[in-house]
Amino acid sequence: MAILIVLSLFVILAAIVAVEAKDLLSTVISIGAAGLMLSVIFLMLGAPDLAITQVVVEVLCLVLLIRTAILREDTTFEARRDRFIVAAGLVGAGLLVAVAYAALQAMVGFGNPLMAADPESLTLANQYLNHGLEKTGAANYVMAVLLDFRAYDTLGEATVIFCSIIGVYAVIRKVGKTTT
Amino acid sequence: MKGMTIIVKEVTTLVIGFILLYSINLILTGHLTPGGGFVGGVMLACGFILMVLSYGKEKVNSLISDRSTTVWDCSGAFAFLVIALLGYFAGDFFANFFAQPGNFRLFSGGTIPLANIAIGIKVGACMAGAFIALTLFRGPAESFPGGKL
After folding, report:
1. Hey, which of A60, A96, B15, B111 has its CA 20 to 30 A from B42?
2. What is the DSSP string of B74-126?
């Protein structure tokens, strides 16, 4: 439990460094460090599917971001801080902390997942856990939920990726582009 | 000089087979062990990006072009939709209509492995296509550390 808190603090620290650094390459590397620590946290909490996804996507994003960031002549940048924006950000952060505290009071405690609370209760999650194997035949229940019980959501996710890649092609294409 | 140094090329030649085999393993056994179509597809794209970075884009472009990544991307998405629509034979959208020969085997899970394969092809092709678009669609004058890309 203590090491989880240490890793979480490291993630927050890396995120702050990523925002505050004056160099684009430092920002990219800080994002990579935060993502790696996040995947370790996922692995320790018993979610290997999420951990693998986090590591692989993080590596891909790191390569793509370095590939694009390194092409600028000058990778340093200076940002000017407006006083109103800082004040608005602080007020928003305070509101978020207050609302999140009120919401966390109503949640089940950490380490007591809702699904394992009462195996005999007739909630939807217990239906998935008790009858997932006989209904889908998939031993990995994450895949059983993703591609059978909730496959409609996966179809939407695939559509989102498809549209974003079409957007990438449309923005950086060569054919049909007029130079001004 | 095209690509990176000879050391990078030799190491890439050694590890690229293992990377691609592991990604195919993640896709095919996604319904049994942690993994799945999305992760395997992204790892396929990572292996492809490693080849582009180490060998240079001319050599790899003879294997997979930007045109073919678009075709694979669209056909993967279409295959996933066809699997979803085939569920109407069993009465419902996304119905798991295959017979189940037994649990914990490679050919269990009905439509789940098929959907994993479709998503893997789709995600791998579109990620590789995004990297190819960033690499190919630009002028020749820009340099890259460790060699010309």
Report:
1. B111
2. HHHHHHHHHHHHHGGGTTSTT---S----TTSTT-STTHHHHHHHHHHHHHHH
Of the candidates A144, A162, A168, which has its C-beta nearest B77's C-beta? A162
Alpha-carbon distance of A37 to A51, in angstroms, equals 10
Tokens of A138: 């998939």
DSSP state of A73: S
Q: What is the CA radius of gyration of chain B?
A: 18
Can you tell me the distance from the alpha carbon of B132 to that of B126, in angstroms, rounded to the nearest whole number? 10
pLDDT of A151-165, one tens digit each? 889 999 999 999 998
Q: Helix, strand or coil for residue B140? A: coil
For chain B, the structural domain boundaries read 6-136
Q: What six digits make up the tokens of B129?
A: 């296509």
ipTM of the complex: 0.80
Render pLDDT for A56-69 as a digit per residue (tens, 0 to 9): 999 999 988 888 77
Instruction: Please give the Cα distance from A51 to A55 (Å, whole number).
Output: 6
Of B33, B35, B137, the CB nearest to A174: B137
DSSP run (H or E) holding A143:
helix A141-144
pLDDT tens-place string over residues B65-107: 778 888 999 999 999 999 888 888 877 777 777 766 677 777 7
The answer for B 77-136 residues in CB contact with A (under 8 A) is 77, 80-81, 84, 93-94, 96, 100, 103-104, 108-112, 115-116, 119, 122-123, 126-127, 129-131, 133-135
